[in-house]
Design a protein that fits this description.
This protein is an alpha/beta fold and 146 residues long. It is 27% helix and 25% strand. It is globular.
Length: 146
Protein backbone atom coordinates (compact mmCIF):
# COMPACT_ATOMS: atom_id res chain seq x y z
CA UNK A 1 0.00 0.00 0.00
CA UNK A 2 2.83 2.44 0.83
CA UNK A 3 4.44 1.73 -2.51
CA UNK A 4 1.22 2.65 -4.32
CA UNK A 5 1.01 5.98 -2.44
CA UNK A 6 4.63 6.71 -3.26
CA UNK A 7 4.09 5.99 -6.96
CA UNK A 8 0.94 8.13 -7.08
CA UNK A 9 2.66 11.01 -5.32
CA UNK A 10 5.66 10.74 -7.64
CA UNK A 11 3.43 10.74 -10.70
CA UNK A 12 1.59 13.82 -9.41
CA UNK A 13 4.89 15.71 -9.11
CA UNK A 14 5.43 15.31 -12.84
CA UNK A 15 2.43 17.54 -13.51
CA UNK A 16 3.30 20.34 -11.11
CA UNK A 17 4.96 23.45 -12.57
CA UNK A 18 8.68 23.72 -11.96
CA UNK A 19 11.13 26.56 -12.59
CA UNK A 20 12.40 24.70 -15.66
CA UNK A 21 8.88 24.60 -17.06
CA UNK A 22 8.02 28.15 -16.04
CA UNK A 23 6.91 30.68 -18.65
CA UNK A 24 9.83 32.26 -20.50
CA UNK A 25 11.07 35.71 -19.55
CA UNK A 26 10.36 38.06 -22.46
CA UNK A 27 13.16 40.41 -23.52
CA UNK A 28 14.04 42.66 -26.44
CA UNK A 29 17.70 42.80 -27.42
CA UNK A 30 19.07 45.59 -29.65
CA UNK A 31 22.33 44.84 -31.42
CA UNK A 32 24.60 46.05 -34.17
CA UNK A 33 23.44 44.37 -37.42
CA UNK A 34 26.91 42.90 -38.02
CA UNK A 35 27.60 41.55 -34.52
CA UNK A 36 27.65 37.76 -34.23
CA UNK A 37 28.47 37.54 -30.52
CA UNK A 38 25.11 39.18 -29.77
CA UNK A 39 23.40 36.30 -31.56
CA UNK A 40 25.42 33.94 -29.35
CA UNK A 41 24.22 35.83 -26.28
CA UNK A 42 20.59 35.64 -27.46
CA UNK A 43 21.00 31.86 -27.95
CA UNK A 44 22.47 31.60 -24.42
CA UNK A 45 19.46 33.47 -23.03
CA UNK A 46 17.03 31.24 -24.93
CA UNK A 47 18.81 28.16 -23.56
CA UNK A 48 18.17 29.60 -20.10
CA UNK A 49 14.45 30.24 -20.35
CA UNK A 50 14.26 33.63 -22.05
CA UNK A 51 12.12 34.53 -25.06
CA UNK A 52 14.35 37.03 -26.87
CA UNK A 53 13.30 39.31 -29.71
CA UNK A 54 16.50 40.45 -31.46
CA UNK A 55 16.35 43.84 -33.22
CA UNK A 56 19.31 44.96 -35.35
CA UNK A 57 19.97 48.70 -35.12
CA UNK A 58 22.60 51.28 -35.99
CA UNK A 59 21.51 53.44 -33.01
CA UNK A 60 22.86 51.24 -30.20
CA UNK A 61 24.84 53.98 -28.43
CA UNK A 62 21.78 56.24 -28.38
CA UNK A 63 19.55 53.44 -27.07
CA UNK A 64 22.02 52.66 -24.27
CA UNK A 65 22.45 56.33 -23.36
CA UNK A 66 18.69 56.97 -23.18
CA UNK A 67 18.36 53.90 -20.95
CA UNK A 68 20.88 55.34 -18.46
CA UNK A 69 24.04 53.46 -19.43
CA UNK A 70 27.10 55.75 -19.45
CA UNK A 71 29.23 55.53 -22.58
CA UNK A 72 32.23 54.12 -20.68
CA UNK A 73 30.10 51.26 -19.32
CA UNK A 74 28.33 50.22 -22.52
CA UNK A 75 28.31 46.61 -23.64
CA UNK A 76 27.99 45.48 -27.23
CA UNK A 77 24.19 45.13 -27.10
CA UNK A 78 21.31 46.53 -25.07
CA UNK A 79 18.40 44.47 -23.78
CA UNK A 80 15.17 45.47 -22.08
CA UNK A 81 13.51 43.02 -19.74
CA UNK A 82 10.68 43.67 -17.27
CA UNK A 83 11.34 47.42 -17.28
CA UNK A 84 15.11 47.17 -16.80
CA UNK A 85 17.99 47.71 -19.18
CA UNK A 86 20.63 44.97 -19.33
CA UNK A 87 23.67 46.07 -21.31
CA UNK A 88 26.35 43.63 -22.42
CA UNK A 89 26.99 39.94 -21.79
CA UNK A 90 25.48 39.76 -18.29
CA UNK A 91 25.13 36.17 -16.98
CA UNK A 92 21.53 34.96 -16.50
CA UNK A 93 21.92 34.38 -12.77
CA UNK A 94 22.62 38.11 -12.35
CA UNK A 95 19.62 39.01 -14.54
CA UNK A 96 17.42 36.69 -12.46
CA UNK A 97 18.78 38.36 -9.31
CA UNK A 98 17.83 41.77 -10.74
CA UNK A 99 14.33 40.61 -11.61
CA UNK A 100 13.81 39.00 -8.20
CA UNK A 101 15.16 41.93 -6.15
CA UNK A 102 13.50 44.68 -8.26
CA UNK A 103 15.90 47.44 -7.14
CA UNK A 104 15.12 51.10 -7.86
CA UNK A 105 17.65 51.41 -10.71
CA UNK A 106 17.47 51.73 -14.49
CA UNK A 107 19.35 48.48 -14.95
CA UNK A 108 22.70 46.74 -15.07
CA UNK A 109 25.67 46.55 -17.41
CA UNK A 110 28.73 44.42 -18.01
CA UNK A 111 30.97 46.79 -20.00
CA UNK A 112 32.83 45.76 -23.12
CA UNK A 113 33.00 42.24 -24.44
CA UNK A 114 34.82 40.21 -21.76
CA UNK A 115 36.40 36.96 -22.92
CA UNK A 116 34.48 33.97 -21.61
CA UNK A 117 31.31 35.91 -20.84
CA UNK A 118 28.04 34.40 -22.11
CA UNK A 119 28.01 34.56 -25.90
CA UNK A 120 31.73 35.32 -26.13
CA UNK A 121 34.40 32.83 -27.09
CA UNK A 122 37.30 31.90 -24.89
CA UNK A 123 37.80 31.00 -21.28
CA UNK A 124 36.88 33.37 -18.50
CA UNK A 125 40.11 34.77 -17.08
CA UNK A 126 38.87 37.36 -14.61
CA UNK A 127 35.96 38.21 -12.36
CA UNK A 128 33.15 40.11 -14.11
CA UNK A 129 31.95 43.35 -12.52
CA UNK A 130 28.33 44.18 -13.27
CA UNK A 131 27.32 47.79 -12.56
CA UNK A 132 23.96 49.24 -11.55
CA UNK A 133 22.97 52.35 -13.51
CA UNK A 134 20.33 55.02 -12.99
CA UNK A 135 18.81 57.68 -15.20
CA UNK A 136 19.25 60.52 -12.69
CA UNK A 137 22.96 61.09 -13.23
CA UNK A 138 24.12 59.29 -10.08
CA UNK A 139 27.41 57.47 -10.38
CA UNK A 140 27.12 53.77 -11.26
CA UNK A 141 27.67 51.33 -8.41
CA UNK A 142 28.78 47.70 -8.37
CA UNK A 143 25.68 45.51 -8.51
CA UNK A 144 27.38 42.11 -8.57
CA UNK A 145 30.61 40.31 -9.37
CA UNK A 146 30.93 36.88 -10.87
Amino acid sequence: MQRRHFLLASAALLFLPTPVLAAPIHATLYKNPDCSCCEGYAAYLRDNGFDVDVKPTNDLAEISSKAGVPEELEGCHTMFVHGYVVDGHVPVDIIRKLLAEKPAIAGITLPGMPTGSPGMVGTKTEKFTIYAVTKDGKAPTVYATE
